[in-house]
Write a structure and sequence with these properties.
The complex is a heterodimer of chains A (about 325) and B (about 110). Chain A has 13 helices and three strands; from the N terminus they run αααααααααββααβαα. A three-stranded antiparallel β-sheet of chain A has the order 1-2-3. Chain A is elongated, with a radius of gyration of 35 Å. The N and C termini of chain A lie far apart (about 80 Å). Chain B is α+β, with helices and mostly antiparallel strands and about 110 residues long. Chain B has one domain: Orthogonal Bundle (Arc Repressor Mutant, subunit A). In chain B, a hairpin with a 2-residue loop joins strand 2 and strand 3. The longest helix of chain B has 29 residues. The two termini of chain B are about 30 Å apart. The chains are: A mainly alpha (about 325), B alpha+beta (about 110). The interface between A and B is medium-sized, with 16 and 16 residues.
Chain lengths: ~325, ~110
């Protein structure tokens, strides 16, 4: 019975101290009865291999012991969907911006790579390591809060005291709220008026002490954005009258946003600021300021592209889910 | 092939779920007369409700913790055995469960 004793000892190891002896005695009695039954059936003692077969059928000691333990979970099935939802929010609002800041430091801050080992690998390693540490802390904190809720007295209260009346209303994704259309209409009219009054010529500011002149290419951007504003005013008006996204309206919004984003990206790269003249400093300083602004506009291109892509993703999703005209 | 595997796995899960509740009822029913673990397993197996040791003993402990069973260690055939039987509460609960079982059975017969 050496094999059986070894087996029972291994099961015992995984059991809680208080119940060990009791459980193992009962299991031992059962297995010995099985062996005896088999022996009477065969009319001889079982070989070690036959005992081994019985033990293998019963299962690995750790698994056998686990059946006697209470079911344990850090976060139970009732809270788990909320836990996953909060983790998604933490990822979107905390971890993704953290990565963007890291990339921004790497691209735009000349001192950052030098301070972290130079080249690409040193700073990338620092950002990557920092990201994992941040992720671990954020996810760990959320998990700890939910684990505490799971065990705390507040859980039943929080999950059981609810009313269907407090559930949010069902929102039609194709419905355009009138307030949105009104704000859009007003904003585009104000923008178009300001644009025509103050931005129609390359000399956008000509006051005593300060002159700002844009490159001649500005005229294309002026007309481009003016046309877009006019289209947006017409669309906001149409949305006000018929407050639903149709395929045509969603398609038109996609085209206008695509044009607006593309123009902005070209604008970033156009060295649009020709001169800034400041009476107090004289022209050399003014030129330096203009060059610096052009350089930063050019550097903002990746962010402009990123924001443009996000807007386009929203527009494409709206186009897919919109109703046929 | 995957579809066949999914179907058989779904069947296995549903079968286990169906059996889980029935086993508790069968164990309570069989323990109207005192039994020790192995003899209980044999009785259930003889009546077509085979149950392995890894399922039975944890179930017996749970039922005892819930106050539905009482147990005592006794020597029989020169071996220490733990004998179980229904407690007073266990008898009441079994009666209620059997009524529920009859009702479910009637409903199922009507549905199927």
């Amino acid at each position: 019975m050496d094999l059986l004793d070894r087996y029972l000892h291994a099961v015992k190891f995984w059991l809680p101290k208080a119940q060990r002896q009791d459980i193992v005695s009962e299991l031992s009695e059962d297995i010995r009865s099985q062996i005896e039954d088999k022996e009477s059936e065969l009319g001889r003692a079982l070989t070690e291999a036959e005992v081994e077969t019985i033990l293998i059928r019963i299962g690995r000691p750790v698994l056998v012991a686990s059946r006697y333990l209470p079911q344990r979970h850090l976060i139970g099935p009732a809270l788990f969907p909320i836990y996953v939802f909060v983790l998604k929010i933490v990822t979107a609002c905390y971890l993704v911006p953290w990565i963007l800041v890291g990339i921004g430091l790497l691209v735009y801050s000349p001192g950052y790579p030098a301070a972290h080992g130079g080249g690409w690998f040193g700073p990338l390693g620092t950002i990557w390591g920092g990201f994992w540490m941040t992720a671990l802390l954020a996810i760990g904190a959320v998990t700890a809060v939910f684990a505490a809720l799971e065990r705390g007295a507040s859980r039943p209260h929080f999950l059981e005291n609810w009313s269907p009346r407090k559930l949010p209303p069902v929102r039609d994704p194709n419905r355009i709220p009138r307030a949105t259309s009104i704000v859009e209409l007003a904003a585009n009219i104000v923008f178009a008026s300001w644009w025509v009054l103050f931005m129609s010529t390359p000399t956008v500011l000509d006051r005593p002490g300060i002159q700002i002149t844009l490159a001649p290419v500005w005229i294309y951007f002026f007309w481009g954005y003016l046309i877009l504003a006019a289209v947006n005013v017409a669309m906001a008006g149409a949305n006000l009258l018929q407050p639903n996204w149709t395929r045509t309206k969603a398609g038109l919004r996609l085209v206008t946003n695509l044009c607006g984003s593309a123009m902005f990206c070209v604008l970033c790269q156009s060295d649009i600021l020709l001169t800034i003249s400041l009476a107090i400093d004289g022209s050399p300083n003014g030129q330096r300021i203009a060059d610096a602004i052009n350089m930063w506009a050019s550097r903002a291109l990746p962010f402009a592209v990123g924001v443009g892509l996000l807007v386009l993703v929203v527009d494409v999703r709206r186009l897919i889910s919109s109703q046929a005209d | 092939m995957t579809h066949v595997t999914d179907t058989s796995s779904a069947y296995e899960n549903l079968r286990l779920e169906l059996r889980r509740g029935c086993l508790a009822l069968a164990v309570l029913g069989a323990l109207r007369a005192e039994q020790y673990g192995y003899s209980l397993r044999k009785i259930l197996a003889d009546r077509g409700m085979a149950i392995d040791e890894n399922t039975l003993y944890p179930l017996l402990r749970r039922l005892e913790t819930q106050g539905l069973l009482v147990s005592e260690w006794r020597e029989e055939d020169k071996r220490n055995k733990r004998f179980y039987r229904l407690s007073h509460d266990g008898t009441l609960v079994l009666r209620q469960l059997l009524a529920d079982w009859q009702s479910i059975n009637t409903s199922l017969s009507a549905v199927l």
